[in-house]
Amino acid sequence: MAKTSTPPKPSARERLLAASDELFYTEGIHTVGIDRVIEKAGVAKGSLYYIFGGKDQLIEAYLFNRHQAWMETVQRGLDAVDDPQAKILAVFDQLGILFAQPDFRGCAFMNATAEALPGSLEDLAATKFRRWIHELFGELARDAGAMDPKALADQLVVLYDGANTTAQMDKTAAPANTAKTMAQLVLAATSFKAHSLS
User: Fold this and answer.
1) Taking the chain (198 residues) in consecutive chunks of 10 residues, what is each chunk's mean pLDDT?
2) Can you give the pTM of this predicted structure?
3) S-S: 113 plus which of 84, 95, 126, 130, CB 3.0-4.6 Å?
């Protein structure tokens, strides 16, 4: 009889990251004490300080991983379509998937900013994330051939932010589709270079 192999137990680092991701996201970075994370992760207190150095470094890792995961999710949506304008709308499709998750509690970076002091690591991580959002829509607008890509990107960022906030406050995934419909209207009213017209 063949032995069934049990999957390896997650490392202390993986368990700390998983515990902090869940607790920091659902309850707040500053609301959750380090003892709660350690208890949920099932690791010794010394393990956290040995692996991360302290709570600040754990928060930094949490926000970094959230940023990376969302970048990868958005990229999958972009890779699934070819038309440049469809790529813009694909971002809102990915938001819809995110909003429909049962544990959705809003944008992790908006939440972190609400708790952050100016210049804190949360503030810096949120600033980096926001720069990426603006650059993402700016690049998509340029690729679509918008005559004024910055203006289009600014409008899309507002729709993106509005969808996030409304989904969080109203506890519904519907704002993603509403924002996508509004983005279609914005695209219809945008001037594009002749070779980029669909």
Assistant:
1) 67 95 95 95 92 94 97 97 97 97 95 91 95 98 96 98 97 98 97 67
2) 0.89
3) 126
